[in-house]
C-alpha cells in the first residue's frame, strides 16, 4: 500500500542507501518534518532491504481496524507522559534483539525550529542504543513538509514534490560504552546522534546548520 502511494506523491532523491545494514538490529534516527515522512521513509527503508518498525502514539492502537493493522506491522506503542513511557523502550529492545530496524524520531515530534532544522533530541534513542549495543544510523530527509506542512490537513500535491533522503555512517558512541546511563551521558550521546542527523540534512539542503540546535524548552 505504501509503495504505490509514495511513488504517486513524490519524486525521489535517495542517497547513500548502501549505508543501511541489511541484517541485524539497527536504530534509524531521523529528523521529523511532517506527518507524511514516516510513510515516505518507510518506502525508502523497505526498498533498501529493511522492514521499518515505527513507534506510534498508544491511542492509535485503540482505533478500530487501524490498531490491528499497525500492531501486525510490529509498531511499538508509546505512552507519552505516563509511568508506562519506559515500556516502549523495553519493547524496542526486544525488537532489536530479534533483528528489527526501528525508525526512531529522537525529537519526539515534528521540529518547531523556524527554519526546520532538527531540534534538541530526547534521550530515548541514545538510551536504547547504549543498552542494546545496536548501531545508530543517522538519516536526514527534506521535502515531506512541502507535501504536507506540519499542522495542515490539506496536502499540496501539485507541482509534484521531491523527497530527498541522505544516510550517514553509524554514529560513534564508543566513548559512552560502560558508563552509567546518567542524564549527562544520555544528553551527550543524544547530542552526537542529532549532530549526525543535522550534518546529513545540511548536505541535502546545501546550507550551514545553526551552531546551536533549537531547544523548545528554552524558547
Question: Which labels suit this protein?
Answer:
219 residues; alpha/beta; Glycerol-3-phosphate (1)-acyltransferase; seven-stranded mixed beta sheet; 7 helices; 7 strands
How would you sum up this structure in a few lines?
This protein is an alpha/beta fold and 219 residues long.
Break the fold down into its secondary structure elements and pairings.
Layout: H1 2-9, E1 10-15, E2 26-30, H2 37-47, E3 52-57, H3 66-72, E4 76-78, H4 87-97, E5 101-104, H5 124-132, E6 136-142, H6 144-147, E7 161-167, H7 183-205
Helix content: 25-40%
Q: How many angstroms does the end-to-end distance come to?
A: 40 Å
Overall radius of gyration: 17 Å
Can you name the CATH architecture? 3-Layer(aba) Sandwich
- Biggest sheet details: 7 strands, mixed
Number of strands: 7
Low-confidence stretches: none
Strand order in space, largest sheet: 1-7-6-2-5-3-4
CATH topology label: Glycerol-3-phosphate (1)-acyltransferase
Count of the domains: 1
In terms of DSSP E residues, the strand content is: 15-25%
What would CATH call the homologous superfamily?
Answer: Glycerol-3-phosphate (1)-acyltransferase
H and E order: HEEHEHEHEHEHEH
With helices defined by DSSP (H or I, 4 residues minimum), what is the helix count? 7
The assigned structural class equals alpha/beta
Description:
There is one protein chain. Helices cover 33% and strands 17% of the residues. It has 7 helices and 7 strands, in the order αββαβαβαβαβαβα. It has a 7-stranded mixed beta sheet, sandwiched between helices. α4 packs across α5 and α5 crosses α7. The termini are far apart.
Amino acid at each position: 500500500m505504501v509503495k504505490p502511494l509514495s511513488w504517486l506523491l513524490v519524486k525521489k532523491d535517495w542517497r547513500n542507501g548502501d549505508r543501511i545494514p541489511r541484517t541485524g538490529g539497527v536504530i534509524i534516527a531521523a529528523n521529523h518534518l511532517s506527518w507524511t515522512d514516516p510513510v515516505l521513509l518507510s518506502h525508502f527503508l523497505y526498498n533498501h532491504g529493511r522492514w521499518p518498525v515505527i513507534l506510534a502514539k498508544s491511542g492509535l492502537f485503540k482505533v478500530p481496524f487501524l490498531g490491528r493493522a499497525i500492531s501486525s506491522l510490529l509498531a511499538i506503542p508509546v505512552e507519552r507522559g505516563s509511568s508506562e513511557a519506559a515500556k516502549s523502550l523495553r519493547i524496542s529492545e526486544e525488537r532489536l534483539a530479534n533483528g528489527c530496524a526501528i525508525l526512531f524520531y529522537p525529537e519526539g515530534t515534528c521540529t518547531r525550529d523556524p527554519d526546520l532544522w532538527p531540534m534538541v533530541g530526547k534521550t530515548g534513542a541514545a538510551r536504547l542504543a547504549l543498552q542494546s549495543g545496536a548501531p545508530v544510523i543517522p538519516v536526514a530527509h527534506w521535502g515531506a513538509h512541502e507535501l504536507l506542512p506540519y499542522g495542515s490537513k490539506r496536502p499540496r500535491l501539485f507541482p509534484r514534490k521531491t523527497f530527498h533522503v541522505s544516510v550517514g555512517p553509524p554514529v560513534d558512541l564508543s566513548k559512552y560504552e560502560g558508563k552509567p546511563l546518567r542524564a549527562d551521558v544520555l544528553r551527550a550521546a543524544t547530542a552526537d546522534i542529532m549532530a549526525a542527523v543535522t550534518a546529513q540534512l545540511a548536505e541535502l539542503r546545501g546550507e550551514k546548520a545553526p551552531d546551536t540546535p533549537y531547544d523548545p524548552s528554552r524558547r
